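Sample pair:
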Amino acid sequence: MLARFVTAPEIALVVLSAFLHAIWSASIKGSRSPIGFNLLQIAPPVAVACVLPLWLPLGDVPPAVWWIAVGTGVSHGFYFYWLARALESGELSVVYPIARSAPAFLPLFAVPLLGESISARGALGIAVVVAGMWAVQADSGVVGWQRFRAPGAKFAWLTLLASIGYSLCDKAAMARMNAAPWHSAIPPAVVYYVILSVTGGLVFTPLALRRLEPGELVAVARGEWRSAFLAALISFASYGLILQALRTAPVSYVVATRQVSVLFAVAIGALRWREQPSRLRLLGALATVVGVALVAR
């Protein structure tokens, strides 16, 4: 069985990742074309993939990881596509809590498939995180069961399914890379991030091109290429930290801890867009911090 709790260094990695993820999400929200913006972010990791074999003995990557990369590529590709579709047709307050509810369902798969062990305290922490995340959006005006039938909800549930899929795949891959001999100075998390970015891009690109209007990608590239490049770097740093934590930490706790990003998202919304969060929204964001404290060792 894996460790029951997450260590302080692992918590620090995931919280920093959550902060960067909130910044990354804000950059996408500010784009004139979220799908086009996400498509531009694929270019940097693809460029790195072209030169990576010059510094990395590809034999160091366990064979099983290449097969896992197929699964995570499909999951990541559809995740980006379904999330964009959900945001196109639904309100953020409806889409976000559904799409980010993976901590509530992930242990159902991680325990039997990955052999993880969830303590009572850890389960309580996960429940508090999920409850806090939903409270952040509770005053949106869409209440009760309407949330599950609102526009965008269908794609939000598909986004949730994809996030569970890639979380399980990425944990399995990083556990194998952590156990394998490694001769390169490039960290395994960096290598695997490039692999999943390329495989995910192969799935996402044709889906995205079908949704873009003629000339839309060119317009976004001309006006937002710097922002997209910076967002790609932030995404690399954010998810690279998650992958580093997944080498040893239980994925059920890592994914739950990452939801503290809602606290940073509320702060960014208030500072950048002058949003005025309600008391319930603030309490919900703070509740995610309490939940993280419960899963920490």
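The radius of gyration is 19 Å.
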